[in-house]
């Protein structure tokens, strides 16, 4: 069994159009490194030098990873990680 990672439309060019991909690792950082080895360029869209990119939301089993330890959040087989671009903007 692996960890399912759900990919938003805007990042599917890095996954060959796949809506979800599988990866492995002990932490979210390990998982993202594993994904980078198979889907080059994806890591840079999710992470910068400070950690998770500001306008990317990541959920581990429906919990915001920022409250679970960020990139240090533990992951395990059978987990689901959902990547969502943050939505902002609009005018009055």
Task: Write up this protein.
The chain is an alpha+beta fold. The protein has one domain: Ubiquitin-like (UB roll). Helix content is 17%, strand content 27%. It contains 2 helices and 7 strands, in the order ββααβββββ. The protein has helices at 28-38, 42-46; strands at 3-6, 20-23, 47-48, 51-52, 56-60, 63-64, 80-85. The chain has a 5-stranded mixed β-sheet with strand order 2-1-7-5-6, covered by helices on one side. It has a two-stranded antiparallel ribbon with strand order 3-4. The chain is globular. The termini are far apart.
Distance between the ends: 48 Å
Report strand %. 25-35%
Q: Tell me, what is the CATH class?
A: Alpha Beta
Strand order of the largest sheet: 2-1-7-5-6
Give the H and E element order: EEHHEEEEE
Task: Describe the structure concisely.
By secondary structure, this protein is of the alpha+beta class.
Looking at this protein, list some descriptive labels.
single chain; 92 residues; alpha+beta; Ubiquitin-like (UB roll); 5-stranded mixed sheet; 2 helices; 7 strands
How is this fold's topology laid out?
Layout: E1 3-6, E2 20-23, H1 28-38, H2 42-46, E3 47-48, E4 51-52, E5 56-60, E6 63-64, E7 80-85
Parallel strand pairs: 1-7
Antiparallel strand pairs: 1-2, 3-4, 5-6, 5-7
